[in-house]
Amino acid sequence: MKVLIISITCGEGHNQIAKAVSNALTQGGAECKIMQLYGFDEKEIARKNKQFLNACKLVPHIYEKIWQNTRNKPLKSYINGVIKKCSGYLLENINAYSPDVIVCTHNEAGALVAHLSESGKINKSIKTYSIVFDYCLCPYWEYNTGLDYIIYPHETMKDELCSKGFKDEQILPFGLPVDLKYTLKEDKQKAREELGLDKNKFTVVLYSGGNCVSSAYDIIKKLLKCKTDIQIVAVCGKNEQEYKRVQKLIDTKGLKNILNYGFCTCLDKVYSAGDIVITRGGGMGVTEQINKQIPFVIREKLILNEKINEKYFVNLGLGVSLHKLGNAPKIVDRLANDEKKLADMREKAAAFSKPDATVRLVNHIMSNGK
Predict the structure, then answer these.
(1) Which stretches of 60-196 are assigned E, i.e. beta strand?
(2) How far is C-alpha 215 from the chain's CA centre?
(3) How far apart are CA 17 and CA 7, in angstroms?
């Protein structure tokens, strides 16, 4: 079986989903290819990513307004623009690869594949999937209803999907697929030993997505005021400037309680070693953390979909909000001295999590895509 996975780089979440699905399918015996929706031009990929990251960091209020307006009144002209820009490149890849299944990790990709299928430009025998990547529906999911299946993170979202025009037989509540390493249990003390961390200190993980949109440096300066004797694991992702700022702080102050990572290939082990993680509210990152059952604090200055995710998880008792950076020491001190609260959050994460999401999706693809 051949599976074409279409991703988009606006942050790293969609690419992480694509890799997780590809790895699991490959292990199951399928042949996979991951492509970028805007892969006809590397500059276009970089432009889309920079546009998204700048909106998150510099003008979240403008992003929020556009997001809300287009969710209520989606612009057909925008989707037509995606179709016009990307259809030739996508058709070329589909015809060259001849897949049995197409999986989309972004709703723009899903909208384009749905259009190509409904207009008869790709074979109807190709099974098509799209994956909802947040715990809310972003704009333009209406244009994915022409696909065979929609994968969504949790049963609580079904009514919202139905309101957009999806039918029961399309909707698969498998959960958000993550790399299988995030579903494995690992001993905390062993993980700390392997990472070179103190086995006895309260451990705070800082994670702000693959591009470290929220500053690790700024929050570390606040956390140094904690009354609790903590150690910090900072994950700066691909943000080299942020990594260098953190490292300079460590070197200048001679700090021994901070482990500084750039792009981290052992994030699953970091979560196993941590007591809490301070994070953004993106669907993929939070899902990985829920699967690892590490209590999370959701950071300040979120974009709207992250705010909706935040409210959702705080109401469920899985997370805690950090609305002001200055409150970080108080929140960490409180959690560090409230094991009952942490245990309750871990228990609720275990009950909410869908660690079999990736396996269920792979099994569905393998049994329906032949």
Answers:
(1) 101-104, 127-131, 149-151, 171-172
(2) 18
(3) 8
